[in-house]
Design goal:
One of its GO terms (molecular function) is endonuclease activity. Keywords: Endonuclease, Hydrolase, Nuclease. This is Nuclease homologue. Pfam families: SNase. It comes from Devosia crocina. The structure is a single chain. This protein is α+β, with helices and mostly antiparallel strands. It has 2 domains: 143 residues, OB fold (Dihydrolipoamide Acetyltransferase, E2P) (Beta Barrel); 99 residues, OB fold (Dihydrolipoamide Acetyltransferase, E2P) (Beta Barrel), CATH 2.40.50.140. It has 6 helices and 16 strands. Strands 9, 10, 11, 12, 13, 14, 15 and 16 form an 8-stranded mixed sheet that branches. It has a 5-stranded mixed beta barrel with strand order 1-2-3-6-5. The chain has a two-stranded antiparallel ribbon with strand order 4-8. Helix 3 runs parallel beside helix 4. It is globular, with a radius of gyration of 19 Å. The mean pLDDT is 94.
């Protein structure tokens, strides 16, 4: 697994401390009381005291794997965007000392098939190696990728996607029409926009696309993979808040 030096040059490295608790597959607690949310990944979720919350498949396995990696070991933290979230958790990449060098915890979990790539518009660094590791784990059907709960969904099956409203999903399909409204862009995956799957790019996200030199209208006809939270507004929909939520698989 990649060391801090080679994983992502954009990170600002900082001393972390000793890990004394592993809450789940993407959250750890340090001896000084800081709770570290491992930015860039989403592990299967545990209830953690929430009533009527069902444990996601492989959540205990993900927690154990991270504990085996980092518990009672010193870590360093790498920052590549916002550092604190609204829950007062520290948002960082985690590097744990090991024989032969450091192990990048996020990459380890994704490559093991025990976490997915999960990014934010204010924390976009170091995603490329994570996406590559996720793709390889998916090909090899490691961990979550052998479980139907985490299957990549088909964009041309809107009825099935509606059943996943409120869930974080990966959706693949061909963009039938890319259309700009007054302040947003719609990526339509079917002919009936009030029923079929749609990805919506609002104005703040469009500014990020423009800053990256990416025109989302050029995605018309492309085969893409979209990742994000599914909601139900005129059919199943995912809001795109930053470019990394869209992976182009083929242009035509």
């Amino acid at each position: 697994m990649a060391s801090a030096a080679s994983a992502c040059e954009a990170l600002t490295m900082s001393h972390g401390g000793l890990v004394v608790e592993v809450t789940d597959g993407d959250t750890v607690v340090l001896e000084d009381g800081r709770k570290i949310r491992m930015i860039g990944t989403q592990a299967p979720k545990l209830p953690l005291g929430r009533e009527d919350f069902e444990t996601w498949p492989l959540a205990p396995e993900s927690q154990r794997a991270l504990a085996d990696l980092v518990l009672n070991k010193p870590i360093r933290l790498g920052f590549g965007g916002e550092r604190i979230d609204r829950h007062e958790r520290v948002l960082a990449h985690v590097f744990v000392e090991a024989e032969g060098g450091e192990i990048w915890a996020q990459l380890f979990m994704v490559a093991s098939g025990l976490a997915r790539v999960y990014s934010f518009p204010d924390n976009r660094n170091c995603l490329s190696p994570l996406l590559a590791a996720e793709a390889q784990a998916r090909v090899e059907r490691l961990g979550i990728w052998a479980n139907p709960y985490y299957s990549v969904r088909a964009a041309d099956r809107p009825d099935e996607l509606l059943l996943r409203a409120g869930h974080y999903e990966l959706v693949e399909g061909r963009v039938l029409l890319a259309d700009r409204g007054s302040s947003r862009v719609f990526l339509n995956f079917g002919r009936f926009w009030k029923e079929d799957f749609t990805a919506v790019i609002e104005a703040p996200a469009l500014r990020l696309f423009e800053g990256d030199g990416v025109d989302p209208l050029a995605l018309e006809g492309a085969l893409v993979r979209i990742r994000g939270w599914v909601d139900d507004r005129d059919g199943p929909r995912i809001e795109i808040t930053h470019p990394e939520q869209i992976e182009v698989l083929a242009t035509r």
